[in-house]
Amino acid sequence: EDQVTQSPEALRLQEGESSSLNCSYTVSGLRGLFWYRQDPGKGPEFLFTLYSAGEEKEKERLKATLTKKESFLHITAPKPEDSATYLCAVQDLKTSYDKVIFGPGTSLSVIP
Amino acid sequence: KAGVTQTPRYLIKTRGQQVTLSCSPISGHRSVSWYQQTPGQGLQFLFEYFSETQRNKGNFPGRFSGRQFSNSRSEMNVSTLELGDSALYLCASSLDGQLLFFGSGTQLSVL
Prior knowledge:
A: mainly beta, 6-stranded mixed beta sheet, globular, B: mainly beta, 4-stranded antiparallel beta sheet
């Protein structure tokens, strides 16, 4: 069965203190791995899609990387506005489109 | 371009009642997925509809059902509400079957 785990569950950083969030997944075959950001009281907002090991994507202070069993979301010199819950999700090659399985998320707090 | 719209935003019901939630997808998106989000379980997949047909279903009891109309709008129904059904219900639409655009959700409280 497809499974996604994320660590740490919660992370507090000082402004400017870089760190990484981890996403570990188990699927028969990876169709795609997704990172979303969710602010309180809102739905998740798409950040990145990764398809194959070795792939990297960047957006402002965020960089997502992918290996065969893990993905990392690196946050460089974070700002308070980066505070949110970051969700990792996967789609299995063997399931139909649009069944996306989400991990539990990492709650990030960036302190000024 | 308007985003995904979910109504109502908040809902309070009592045990045993039923509830219907509504979702209007982004114009042109024919796929609509529903998720339940709780602090303990995270985002759990409920079901997905494409062109009025349910293509995928998660591991939820039959009390949870949905449908999609010809204009791609979707409704989700929960019958015989239980306390454990209290959650944020999120709808997402998709054009390509992968990239999901979420609404702000309906916060359901069951008393």
